[in-house]
Structure formats: C-alpha cells, structure tokens
C-alpha cells in the first residue's frame, strides 16, 4: 500500500489518511437526509443524480462528448440504455456547439445537461456561456430564458494531468452575472447539489472535482434529494481563524486544520459550494467570530476567486480583522506536470499560513 | 485500499490517453494534408495545378470508367475499403479533389431582372403577393425613417435592411407562426410579417417602458415570445447552435414546425456556424439556415472572408442539403424556403439556403461604407437590382397593383410610423429597478445590496443621472 500511495505524492497520501472526515458531509446535512444510502464514490453519486434527473423529468437530456457509452469518467454509465439514445447522446467534439445546442434546448423549456469532458476544454464555449447563456433572460426582458441549462465539467488537479487536464477555471465564470457556479466537495454533496443545479431556473456551470471521482467515498442516500444553492456550510467549527474553500481543496484544508489543532489553533472551515452568487453572510459571520481569514484554491492566486472573497470580507469586517487575509492558492503559472506538488496549495503551505496569520 | 487506488489511477490514465489519442490522430492527419502555402501557386506551378483540376474533372465525368475500375476492385476483393460511413473505393490514380468547381453553384430564381417569371409555376397567390409587397415597402419606409431619427439624435443606433427586403419578407411568408426564428440582426422584416407593430418596433428603438427588452439593449435588438422570435444579440452566429438545440426539441416533441435561423456571409466564418451545421446534420433536426450573402461584413468583402464558392457549398461538406437562391427575387426565396420547410419537417433534416444579395445600406449608423466600396457599386445594386422594385413589376404586370395603391400605402405607413415614433419618444423609460431584475430568476443578495447603494447615490447626486429614467 505504501508504495502505491507514494505514486500519488504527499497529497494523495494525506488525503487517504484523512479521507473520512475530509469527504464526509457535515452532521447538519446528514441529519436532514435519511441514512438509507450505500457507500459510493463521487462519479457514482453524479451518475445517480443524472438517473434521477432523467427519471423525474421527461424533458431532461444528457449530452456531450463520449457520454453515450458512459463518459470517460463513467459519470453517464447506463443512462443511454435506460433512457434511450435520444435523451442521452454523444455530440461532435465541439464545446461551443455543445453549449450553444444546450442553450437552444433549454430555451425551449427542457433540462439540458451538457458535459464538457474536462474544464480545461471549456474555453471554446466561453462565448456561448458568457454572451449567450448568461444574458439570455436579461436581454429579452425575461421573455426567454435558458435556465434549464447545466454544464458539468471535471476540474482540478489529478496527479498527472499537466496543463490540460488539471485546470480550475472557476474564476473566469465568477465574473459573469447571469450564471451560477457550483462545486461539490463529496459524493453526497455532489448528488444533492447537481440535482439542485439541474432543476434551478438559471444556467449553471457545475465543476466536478475529478480527483475525487473515485477517491472520495461516502454514504449517499439513494433517494431524490436536493441541497440548497448559494448557501455555504461550516463543515468544521473553530474560533481562531476561518478557512474558506470549495471542492477537492477542502480535504487538504481539513488536514491543515487537524495539524493546526495539534498546535492549539482552532480552525473554522467553510465550504462555499456556490461561488456565484455566494453566501457572504456565512463567511462574514465566521470572520466576525474568529477575526482571521484564509482562502485556498487550486487556481492561480492572481485574479482567483479568493481575491473577491478577501476584498468583500475586508470591506465588511475591516475593524474586526486581526491579521491580513491569507490566500494560499496555485502559482501564477500554467499547471506544470512534474511540478504539480510544487504548484499546488498543499497542506503545509496552508498550515504555515494559518500559523503566521494567527501569530500576526 | 491500495488496490482501489491503483485501479483509479489506471482508469484515469487510460481516460487521459483516450483524450490524448485524439490529439495524436489530428497530428498525424496534418501530415496527409497539403501545406497551405500550396494555395499560392507560382507561375511554374500553375499549369500543374491546372492539370490537376482537369484530372479531377475527368475523374468526375467518366462515370463508366470509374464504375469499371470499382468493379475490378471489388472483383479483386481487396480494392474497396469498408470504412465507417460506407464503402470507399481505392484508386491508383493520385487525384486531389479540386479546391474550386469548374462552375460556381447555380442560383435559383423565378423572376428575371424585369420582374417577369422565367417559369410559370407560382404558388404565391394575389393576396399573399400583395401582402408581401406591402411588407417590403413598410420595411423600406421603416428603415428610412428610423435612420433619419438616428441622424437627428432621437435614437442612439440603427441598422437598415435595404437590399434584403425580399429575403426578410419572402422567407417569413413561406413559414408558419409556429416555426421558431433565431435571428441575427438584419431580419426585422420577419418580425414585421409576424405582426410586430410599428409601435412595438419604435418602443424597442427608444428603449422605453413598453420595450419588451426593458431598455437594456441597443436599438434593433428586437425579440418577441408571442411571435416566436428569439431576442437578438449583437454577437455573430451564436444563434446558430441555439437553433439546432431548439430544433432538437421540436423533433423530440414531434411538432409540425421547424426552426429558421439567419446569418450573414461574415457569420459563416465563425466557429458557431461550423458547429451548428455539423450538429444539425448529426442530430438530424428540422432547421433551416438562411445565409444572407450580401457581399459585405462591415467593410470586409467576401473575397477577404472565404475562398470557397460562397456559403452554399459548405453544406455538402457537413452533409446538409443546400441551395443558392437569388436574394433579390422574392418568389425564388419564397419557393426555396417553402420547399426547405417541407423537407426539414418531414425528413428531419437541416437545410442551408444561401441568398445572394447586396447590402445597399451602410453596415449601421456607425458606418460610412463609401470609405471602402465605390458609390457607383452601391448605386447599381440600389437601382438596377432592387428586390422591391422587381417584385412590384411582377405584381403590376399581373394587374394586382397600381400607382394609386402604391402612394396610398406609402403615405399611410409613413403616417403610422411617424405617429409611433412620436409616441414612443414620449413614453417614459423603464425604472431603474429593471437594472437588477432578470439577471437571475430571483435577484440574489449582492444585487439587492447594489440596488440600495445605487439608490442612495442617486439621492445624493440626482444631477448625475438622466432625468427621464424613473428611479
């Protein structure tokens, strides 16, 4: 086991070590959810959500590159067999076509669930997302909308993805009024949030942490449930510093929290879940309590969404802050293959920042 | 656990490999393609190119020879490739497909330059013909008056359809109201045909309270859900993939309707055009792509836009049935769109129509086209090839129209339009709450905060803001 784990580098080792607390949904959520579920991984949770979405709405469609046979990450397994090739289908290899097609399909009142194979390949669809999907309702004075559109895309580091299979492009989309950006941290979250996104009346970009597709396993209720959008969640309570993150990065942040605890530092960890429109109130309330804030994401630090959170919280909590807001993020470089561990906002980078912020 | 980790790594690796594999293939393919520099043939290379062209032609024209070869090939058992998409015959003759046809794709027309029918098989009756003509004239008058209103500073922007009245009105006339329109921005005639009133046009151009778009977009960005006319955006060709998605919905719901989307020659260079045609062919959806090839994309002539024989030939490459039509011949447009609609709906197939026309007006009120094209060229198209005049000659020769009817029509449309403009100008602007609604279905907290903050600023500095926008 040790040797196989080594291949994943420190990140995977530590993730596995703390897998259970890192990936589980908080007590608050689970109390609302019947524990009738079985332990499944994140791609299976996505798959369950898609099954439910197609089952409960005959006007829901799933499409994208290679989705027909189950998708390169297996998220769409079994859907075409169950719901037919007219509702679950391959598209040509063309991201702007996929999203543009989805906008039109959604504009007719359908639930258009589009898959972009990797978030790294979403850029050809940028115009369709920014100028079309995001403005469809506004520009028509609410005569038309494409709120039924959900764009799913696996994002983030995966251990060996290099430039084009590792990117976290969420900040680009957080600058676009009219769309929502949602990122789940675990299987149970992924299922509930994805169903909410699919049924929401606004176009949504849903980034899935591909690192966790297979690694993250937790008990997921089998029934149809939804988790609220634009509601952050305190997944670990603390009093000395607030940490804010989303998606796969939360597991790394949780490890840092555990290590900081050994040094007597009590960390509060918040999963933002929805990046726009984001839940400022939950973050603000936490920072008012702790007086310190650290944000961490895999995307490059400059212009990342951490900058927006930092600025907003400084505006609201300036007099309460006892230290500068810390941002532990990816480097301002393309995502580098053999240097992945160096690039990433790893546990000890976060731990150091926690300590220096608390001791400021 | 170690096992499951190893497995996950293996699967992800394989997935990556699959993705990389696509790049690999693309790369290899580029080795088979001739380099783009071959386009610019040197004088020495020219005869060689010519020979090739002839070879291609002879290859195409000698069906018997080709059949015989194929027969031999099949007999030999190894000379035909069973390849996805069908049988591919091998040949020992190295023959490149010519980049240009011997003759350009023909252009379908019904009326000659003098408005006289070349063939007598019209399906447009007197009533429809007169209505079509009246709408073309209305469109012309609307353009003239709105253009002037912009010049007088009463509206901020305008864009005319001069020279493309036939494409606008005749295509609209050949459709039903259930057919969905995904327009570009030079097809207000389709909306006019569907019953959007002159007052509604004026309201949008003035961005007043009655504008369905709530004053958010520039003039001419019309949209009307009751007329199945999706709101215009300024972006080029982005509506084409939407049309395909909407057509897929019509097909799944087994509706007796199709989607029609419009774009220009410039739009055919956009990625969305290629995406849409390819998707439409693969998805087998009832959509009609109408390209208004008017020769100009702002100042860019088609010679700087593409080297193909226009746009019509691109359909074949995507497996889309296509036709080239005289865009100044309303009857040809009508017939082609009517036939296209039948095929699109009954056969679940996309159709591409390229209408050849000329943008007689400037690109918009922000443009002076005499800076990049000769005034006499514009004048020639405006006078000798005007689609409205040609159609008038036809209805007059049928005895369906008279000079008296003409002046009555023009004066009544003019009167109605001037009234509409005066009225639209007086209607107040939408209130500022419309800034914050419709971004999402429900305004989120940040927008509510921003609205409060803006209102406070307005209270402190009312002189900074236009007085005609209600707070």
Automatic annotation (TrEMBL), chain A:
<dbReference type="InterPro" id="IPR005475">
    <property type="entry name" value="Transketolase-like_Pyr-bd"/>
</dbReference>
<dbReference type="Pfam" id="PF02779">
    <property type="entry name" value="Transket_pyr"/>
</dbReference>
<dbReference type="Pfam" id="PF02780">
    <property type="entry name" value="Transketolase_C"/>
</dbReference>
<dbReference type="GO" id="GO:0009083">
    <property type="term" value="P:branched-chain amino acid catabolic process"/>
</dbReference>
<dbReference type="GO" id="GO:0005759">
    <property type="term" value="C:mitochondrial matrix"/>
</dbReference>
<dbReference type="InterPro" id="IPR029061">
    <property type="entry name" value="THDP-binding"/>
</dbReference>
<protein>
    <recommendedName>
        <fullName>3-methyl-2-oxobutanoate dehydrogenase (2-methylpropanoyl-transferring)</fullName>
        <ecNumber>1.2.4.4</ecNumber>
    </recommendedName>
</protein>
<dbReference type="GO" id="GO:0007584">
    <property type="term" value="P:response to nutrient"/>
</dbReference>
<dbReference type="InterPro" id="IPR033248">
    <property type="entry name" value="Transketolase_C"/>
</dbReference>
<dbReference type="GO" id="GO:0003863">
    <property type="term" value="F:branched-chain 2-oxo acid dehydrogenase activity"/>
</dbReference>
<keyword id="KW-0560">Oxidoreductase</keyword>
<keyword id="KW-0496">Mitochondrion</keyword>
<feature type="domain" description="Transketolase-like pyrimidine-binding">
    <location>
        <begin position="40"/>
        <end position="215"/>
    </location>
</feature>
<keyword id="KW-0809">Transit peptide</keyword>
<dbReference type="InterPro" id="IPR009014">
    <property type="entry name" value="Transketo_C/PFOR_II"/>
</dbReference>
<comment type="subunit">
    <text>Heterotetramer of alpha and beta chains.</text>
</comment>
TrEMBL record, chain B:
<comment type="subunit">
    <text>Heterotetramer of alpha and beta chains.</text>
</comment>
<keyword id="KW-0496">Mitochondrion</keyword>
<dbReference type="InterPro" id="IPR001017">
    <property type="entry name" value="DH_E1"/>
</dbReference>
<feature type="domain" description="Dehydrogenase E1 component">
    <location>
        <begin position="135"/>
        <end position="432"/>
    </location>
</feature>
<dbReference type="GO" id="GO:0009083">
    <property type="term" value="P:branched-chain amino acid catabolic process"/>
</dbReference>
<protein>
    <recommendedName>
        <fullName>3-methyl-2-oxobutanoate dehydrogenase (2-methylpropanoyl-transferring)</fullName>
        <ecNumber>1.2.4.4</ecNumber>
    </recommendedName>
</protein>
<keyword id="KW-0560">Oxidoreductase</keyword>
<keyword id="KW-0630">Potassium</keyword>
<keyword id="KW-0479">Metal-binding</keyword>
<comment type="similarity">
    <text>Belongs to the BCKDHA family.</text>
</comment>
<dbReference type="InterPro" id="IPR029061">
    <property type="entry name" value="THDP-binding"/>
</dbReference>
<keyword id="KW-0809">Transit peptide</keyword>
<dbReference type="Pfam" id="PF00676">
    <property type="entry name" value="E1_dh"/>
</dbReference>
<dbReference type="GO" id="GO:0005759">
    <property type="term" value="C:mitochondrial matrix"/>
</dbReference>
<dbReference type="GO" id="GO:0003863">
    <property type="term" value="F:branched-chain 2-oxo acid dehydrogenase activity"/>
</dbReference>
<dbReference type="GO" id="GO:0046872">
    <property type="term" value="F:metal ion binding"/>
</dbReference>
<dbReference type="InterPro" id="IPR050771">
    <property type="entry name" value="Alpha-ketoacid_DH_E1_comp"/>
</dbReference>
